[in-house]
């Protein structure tokens, strides 16, 4: 491609990523509105028995407004995903390589992976109730990625390996699932506390129209169980093989390697405790959130504040 074409593709990518950020922020607002409109609604099972007692009909019905806002949020999330896909693809074409060679690109591509995972699981498990967390977190990541923007260009020699492609792709897929699991864990903590402390006659709002805490906990466990083997392969197999290619050693206790291992240990402990000790509930959810915190620090804090041999991936 000519330099002019590459420049045009890079500009198109920047516009698409910026547009996706704005659309995703609107999706977050719509999801928040969905929760807000439902603040006085009873649980779904009560509405079935009560008929139209909860409110009017049509546009004046809080349930209708809540459902409409949720539908808008899901539609905007889908649109943001498509626009971001264009942004990531054109970035790769402009750079003439896979579009995840630095923090900016990883943030955009990882957000895209998380949104795709969310939309797929909405179809499979109907997890629209994590929409505010997924879209809010995605908006923050895209906004923060813009702060570490670098122009499209070639990679340093150490990054020229198909094992890097496999390593980072695995990290993005597992990370997107970890985000969904963390969102479910947050809602589990909120819902389980509300179930313990809120009298039956005071249970109003969107929190009581989402699945029970037990079902939310089950979703979190399944997502983490899916993500963990992928993270194991990405961090402890593909990563060391790439390190051998790039630096002549499989493992050197570089800060990013250490934090990748810490993340693996935390999630391994989470899954082991659930499988052998029957851990469920608050302790398991907190451990899952600690694991996600180590994952985020590995890909943000280590690059920005700690450094190491991976620092050129900023």
Describe the model:
It is a single chain. With 314 residues, this protein is mainly alpha-helical. It has a domain at 155-314. It is 74% helix and 0% strand. Helix 3 crosses helix 4 (103-125), helix 6 (162-197) packs antiparallel against helix 7 (213-247) and helix 7 (213-247) packs antiparallel against helix 8. It is flat and about 65 Å long. It starts with a helix and ends in an 8-residue tail after the last helix. Residues 45-56 have low confidence and may be disordered.
Note the topology.
Layout: H1 3-37, H2 44-50, H3 62-95, H4 103-125, H5 131-147, H6 162-197, H7 213-247, H8 255-276, H9 282-299, H10 301-306
Helix pairs in contact: 1-3, 1-5, 3-4, 4-5, 4-6, 6-7, 6-9, 7-8, 8-9
GO cellular component, one term: plasma membrane
Organism: Aeromicrobium endophyticum
GO biological process, one term: cytochrome complex assembly
What features would you highlight for this structure?
314 residues, 0% strand, 74% helix, mainly alpha, single chain, 10 helices
Give a concise summary.
With 314 residues, the chain is mostly helical.
Listing every helix as H and every strand as E from the N terminus to the C terminus, the arrangement reads HHHHHHHHHH
Shape: flat
Helix count, DSSP H or I runs of 4 or more residues: 10
Cα end-to-end separation: 26 Å
**Gyration radius, rounded:** 21 Å
Structural class determined from secondary elements = mainly alpha
The major beta sheet can be summarized as:
none
Uncertain segments of ≥5 residues (pLDDT<50)? 45-56
